[in-house]
Design a protein that fits this description.
The complex is a heterodimer. By secondary structure, chain A is α/β, with parallel strands linked by helices. Chain A contains eleven helices and 13 strands. In chain A, the strands form two sheets. In chain A, strands 7-8-9-3-10-11-13-12 form an eight-stranded mixed β-sheet, sandwiched between helices. The two termini of chain A are 41 Å apart. By secondary structure, chain B is mostly helical. Chain B has a single domain, classed as Orthogonal Bundle (MetI-like fold). Chain B is 72% helix and 0% strand. Chain B is elongated, with a radius of gyration of 23 Å. The two termini of chain B are 30 Å apart. Classes of the chains: A alpha/beta, B mainly alpha. At the A-B interface, helix 2, strand 7, helix 3, helix 4 and helix 5 of A face helix 8 and helix 9 of B.
């Protein structure tokens, strides 16, 4: 059976600037796939490109881009907007400002179902109240009549999640859904997503830069750097045996209680994500990489470190194990 | 499913505490009610000529009669009745102009601001072109070609006073277009029409309401000016501007004939402007919430 979402070699350009230079990833039904990376490495642009919602001037190309077996590369705007919010839903980054301030929560929630499913007002209100209850909002009836400014950030994010789930989507793309929230709310939201996934079997593409979140809920992780997916592996394998020096660098940046000693400096990766000029060849990480050598200036091989574990690096698979030994 | 809507008590209280709003809303409200009820509250037919009782002073002045509270004009028509019917004309002109020009200007502004690019160039050209056309000259040309009529005044003003609506709608739409809730609406599968009507329009409505009051005051004044010049509402309709024009020959002997419609015009325009200023202040703070 083909994957729910299958993306091969996605490229996005804005004028002369390449924002995404070859991202491949798949999301299976009922799977959580995390896309991690620093700010500015093309995660959000990837998500928007998948939804067909690039800002003006953005161009999308891909070798394959299919959703539930359907090629969506050349789908018209009308067909695409029929998919959006119905079979593929997306939660955007900012919960505080993602609700229309001039409209009640209830009206915004019910509109999704009425538009996509032609539901009656009463049906849609029932569904909205039920979902608000599911996402842990008490007194849904009261909340439906309120305006967004009367809700806290955590509540608004739950409303956004409820809105994304109104039509029972098959795929949920969540762009840093918890970044703006405090830790306790974050944990609740993540648990909620996991519960809903188990219940509805939806595929989740979760975009985050928080490896703690990844470790908690991801089945599979893709690490993105400067517009490329540089490493992709099942979560446990990625944390146990990271192949790409960038992935290793990211992992050493996170404190692990018991493992990292008090007073010992955390790891860091010097520099920032570079702007990649057109016609760039070789590894985009080489200027920041401690292991860079001459071969990094040429085409980089995609190597397999395991049956389901790929990395874009010149170093031989398994090199970290030997270096550690 | 019972839905309890929490009312915005704070906003209502702030409105009532604003003196400009209270005064402006009272003036506009009273004028509107008087205009609507005109046929039932006027003591006389405003068109009934009575050549025997010409230029009778108001009842509170020397030689005044209690029969005509504001006196009569040069044809013996009851001045109070004409003033009340004049309010009707001013309000109809004001409201009809704002609706017509509001629809034109808002549509153009939203289209330009939302789509940008070539569409925006066209809208900006139209705004610039419109700003370079003097309203009085157009009115003169129309009156010369088609004669003056009530409908023509509404059309001329409505089709010409949309520029401020377009400018404001365009700039506010540009600000809102890229906000998160608009992106979220796209993500939820909204069509373009739905984004324009449900996301953009309600969120620029407060700005447009302020523009509407300013345009209404301007339209009322312009109508009076055009009627005064003989390019607007034709006699014998009791437009305030026309009343002033007809009274100007007698102003040195019977100054009240020009004062009464003049003061009425001043008070109404003041009221509309006070209302607009108060709305801008009150809604302006709301928008920063």
């Amino acid at each position: 059976m083909s994957a729910l979402l299958d993306v091969r070699n996605l490229r996005v350009t804005f004028g002369g600037t390449a924002a995404v230079r070859g991202a491949s990833l798949t999301v299976e039904k009922g799977e959580t796939h995390c896309l991690v990376g620093e700010s500015g490495c093309g995660k959000s642009v990837t998500a928007l490109a998948l939804m067909g919602l690039l800002a003006r001037g953005g161009k999308r190309e891909a070798d394959a881009l299919s959703f539930a077996g359907q090629d969506i590369r050349n789908l018209g705007e009308r067909d695409m907007s029929r998919l959006r919010g119905d079979r593929m839903a997306m939660i955007v980054q900012e919960p505080m400002t993602s609700l229309n301030p001039a409209d009640t929560v209830g009206s915004q929630l019910t509109e999704v179902l009425r538009r996509h499913r032609g539901a009656s007002r009463a049906q849609a209100v029932d569904r909205a109240a039920e979902l608000l209850g599911r996402v842990g909002i008490t007194a849904p009836g009261l909340r439906l009549g309120q305006y967004p400014h009367q809700l806290s950030g955590g509540l608004r994010q739950r409303v956004m999640i409820a809105m994304a789930l109104m039509c029972d989507p098959e795929l949920l793309i969540a762009d840093e859904p918890t970044t703006a929230l405090d830790v306790t709310v974050q944990a609740q939201i993540l648990r909620l997503l996991a519960e809903l996934q188990a219940e509805f079997g939806l595929g989740i593409l979760l975009i985050t830069h928080d490896l703690g979140v990844v470790a908690r809920i991801a089945d599979r992780v893709s690490v993105m750097y400067a517009g490329e997916v540089v490493e992709s592996a099942p979560t446990a394998e990625l944390f146990a045996a990271p192949q790409h020096p960038y992935t290793r660098g990211l992992l050493t940046c996170v404190p692990v209680p018991g493992k990292v000693k008090r007073g010992e400096p955390l790891g860091s990766i010097p520099g920032v994500v570079p702007r990649i000029p057109p016609g760039f060849v070789g590894c985009s990480f080489r200027d920041r990489c401690a292991y860079a050598h001459a071969a990094c200036k040429h085409d980089i091989p995609r190597q397999h470190a395991g049956p389901d574990h790929e990395a874009l690096c010149t170093l031989p698979p398994g090199w970290t194990d030997r270096a550690a030994a | 499913m019972s839905v309890t809507v929490v009312p915005g008590t704070g906003a209502a209280r702030r409105l009532l505490r604003n003196i400009g709003f209270v005064v402006g809303a009272t003036i506009v409200g009273v004028t509107l009610i008087v205009a609507i009820l005109a046929p039932w509250i006027t003591p006389y037919d405003p068109f009934a000529v009575d050549l025997v009782h010409r230029l009778v002073p108001p009842s509170f002045m020397e030689d005044g009669t209690p029969a005509n509270f504001l006196g009569t004009d040069q044809l013996g028509r009851d001045y109070l009745s004409r003033l009340i019917y004049g309010a009707r004309i001013s309000m109809i002109i004001g409201i009809a102009t704002v609706i017509t020009s509001g629809i034109i200007g808002t549509t153009l502004g939203i289209l330009g601001g939302f789509y940008g690019g070539r569409m925006d160039d066209v809208v900006m050209f139209l705004i610039t072109a419109r700003l370079s056309i003097p309203v009085v000259l157009v009115a003169l040309a129309v009156a010369g070609l088609l004669g003056s009529s009530f409908i023509l005044v509404i059309l001329v003003l409505g089709l010409l006073l949309w520029d401020r609506f377009a400018v404001v709608a365009r700039s506010t739409t540009m600000q809102i277009r890229t906000l998160d809730y608009v992106s979220a609406a796209w993500c939820a599968g909204s069509s373009q029409a739905s984004v324009l009507l449900r996301e953009i329009l309600p969120n620029i409505a407060t700005h447009l309401a302020v523009v509407a009051t300013l345009e209404m005051a301007l339209a009322i004044l312009l109508e009076a000016a055009l009627s005064f010049l003989g390019l607007g509402v034709p006699a014998p309709l009791p437009s305030w501007g026309l009343m002033i024009a007809e009274a100007k020959e007698y102003m040195f002997f019977t100054p009240w004939v020009i004062l009464v419609p003049g003061i009425a015009l001043f008070v109404l325009v003041l009221g509309v402007n006070l209302l607009g200023d108060a709305l801008r202040d009150l809604l302006g703070t709301d928008l920063n919430r």
